[in-house]
Structure formats: structure tokens, C-alpha cells
Fold:
Amino acid sequence: MNDKNKLFIKALELAENLSYKVSPRPPVAAIVTYKGEIIGEGVTTIDPLIHAEVNAINAAEEKLKSLKDCVLYTTLEPCFHTGNTGPCVDRIIESGIKKIIIGSVDPNPKVNKKSINKLKNNKTDVELIENHDLKKRSDNLIEPFKMYIKNSLPFVTVKMAISLDGKIATKTGDSKWISSEKSREIVQDMRSKSDAILIGSKTLEIDKPSLNARNRTLQPKIKAVVKTAPNKISEIESLLLDNASKIIVYCHKKPNNFESWKDIDFVEVNKKNEKLDLVAILKDLSERGCINVLMEGGGKLLGSLIDLNLVNKVRLFISPMLIGGESSADSIGGEGIEFISQSKKLTDVEVKIVESDIMVTGKLKDHV
Ligand SMILES: NC(=O)c1ccc[n+]([C@@H]2O[C@H](COP(=O)([O-])OP(=O)(O)OC[C@H]3O[C@@H](n4cnc5c(N)ncnc54)[C@H](OP(=O)(O)O)[C@@H]3O)[C@@H](O)[C@H]2O)c1
Structure:
């Protein structure tokens, strides 16, 4: 691997391992190099909001007076417009940097290639990373942001533990545990990295999950349940356990005594085909800055999301066990399809063995 790609990996690693959430912004990192050595690193910071390129340039300028012989590596095209910060492209031009290597073009129409063109017009040498794997890693970082910018919807990842026969619980509703301990640890990381977690009312009723990211500092901003007619606070009490997130109940009608349900937000949603309108629910989550939503079951809610093409990524932990039973919950409910040709095909499929489980991850639909 050449030096350029090695340095770009450094920027990727910084963005991939941010220890805080920047949603609805994408995680971005940048580095400034001089004669192949890193002299400045930066990631997007929130308080105060400063973009990665500016942080990296500021750090480099403390070490070197003139950056004209430096190279800037950034995982995302610098911003062109004045939003919550000034245009990074102008800061780069002002710094004198004459070469920039970029991972992904910004999908935001306010930016999309405008900064690249401005830099080129300023006689800055602009290169888009060519290595396929590195470009993919860079694009993966901005996928939720792309979904949000283009569709005003969050990027929905589904996580589910299933038996070999596609069941997610026994006929009594028992599902603890289908997946291995290691698989469940992976789920804690997924929770921690998500902005919001969404579940169906039956999962809440039967599993009584807390939905916390166990032993992780970073917790989801929102824990949400879809429940047409919430009646008693005891129905959602498990979500209050050691809670560090906002709890939202998406319902058709708020309960009469909702003011006394402490620390819980109710959001009324219209029905579509007798069920709560999931597009409205996801739009509401994206308006609250949640661009990474983890859907944790059950099968009925997943079926509705799949029918509506609202799922972007799937991660199934397939456990080598058979559950059986016609009345045991299936992994995917909903309307379904008539022909195999209509089936939802996974792309970018990854298969891993996790303890005794087969973990299959794939993307469902290129929405954007
Ligand atoms: N193995 C796993 O990974 C896993 C994960 C999660 C759950 N589970 C198991 O799965 C079982 C529960 O799953 P489930 O499929 O029966 O139910 P579910 O998907 O958890 O919940 C379905 C309920 O959500 C509410 N809902 C509101 N709007 C909806 C919409 N647009 N589409 C679909 N549902 C909507 C409805 O109840 P209201 O009428 O109250 O609104 C509906 O009956 C439990 O036994 C649990 O243990 C297993």
C-alpha cells in the first residue's frame, strides 16, 4: 500500500472511531501532512462546532508557519456554504495548502462538487481517493447523512437474532437467548453508535428490554416504541431502567393521564392501512437529528418496514437451533411478496462466524 493510502487510512480511522455523536452531521476527519509526516489532525467537534478540516489546519499552523507545501487529507469534500460554520473551502484556500485528497463527494446539494471546483479554480491539486476499499469505507461513513439529506429519512439498520428456521421467539414469546454472548456484545456496540432505537409494542410487552447500551458511555439519544394505544406506564417501565435517553412513544392517541407518565414523550401519528404511519415516525426521528436508527424487532414491525422499503441495512445473527411452531413469531411479518423475483436482495454481504452464530450483514436498498 502506498503512503498516500496509508495516510488516508489514518483519517478514516479517526472518523470511524469518534467517541461522540455528531448527527445529523456525518463523522468527518482530516489530516495535514508535511513531507509525508502528519502535522495536524482534526475531527468534527460539536461544542463549539468546528469542522474537521479547520481543526486539522489550525493544529498544523501551530507547527508550521506556511502550509503551502502541505497536503490535506479529508474523508469528505469540504463545505462550500455558510451554515453553522463558515465555508471550509475558503479556510483551505486561505491556508495556502495546494494539494487535497478527498474520500467522498458531499451529497448535500449546497456543496456537491462546488468546493472541489472552487479549489481547482484556485489551482489547488484535488484528488479523489481511487482505492476501491478506502473509497467504500469513506462512503460508508456518510451513508446515514446521505439518506437524511436526500430523503429526510434516517438510515435504518435492523438487528435480529433468528433460529435456523427463521423464528425470533418460541410459541410462548420466549427469546432469551437465541444468539450467543459475543453476538449480544456486538449489539451493545450497535446500540451505542445509534442515534435512536426503535421497537414494536409486542417486543416491549414480552421482552421488557431497557434498550440501554450495556457498559457503554455512549447511549442512544432516543429509545422509541410504536404502540397504537398506550394505557399504563407499567407497559413501558423497562425503558426507564438506568435510562440516559429520551423515551418516545409513537401512538395514535395519547393516554388520558399522559402528563403523569414522567420523562416520556408521546407523539401522535396518523394511521395508514390500520397501522401507525412509519414514514411519519421515521421523519420525526430524523427531524430530531437521528440519522442512524437501529430497529430491534419484532417481526411484525420489521415486516411493515420491509413492505415500505424503509430498511437500509440488515444484520442477522443466525443461531444453529430450531424452534418450530406455527404460532412462534417469525422474523419478518408484513404483507410479503408474490414472486421470488420481487424478493429484497442483499448487497455488500458480509458473513462472519461469531461464537456459535453466523452473522450476516448486508445492505437492502440503495435508496439514494
Ligand atoms: N430474536 C430477536 O432478535 C427478537 C427481537 C425482538 C423481538 N423478539 C420477539 O418477537 C416477539 C414480538 O414480535 P412481534 O412480531 O410479535 O411484534 P412487534 O413487531 O414487536 O410489535 C408489533 C406491534 O407493534 C405495533 N405497531 C404499531 N404500528 C405498527 C406498524 N406500522 N407495523 C407493525 N406493527 C406496528 C402493533 O401493536 P399495537 O396495536 O400495540 O400498536 C403491533 O402488533 C416477542 O416474542 C419477542 O420476544 C425477538
Q: What stands out?
A: The mean pLDDT is 95.
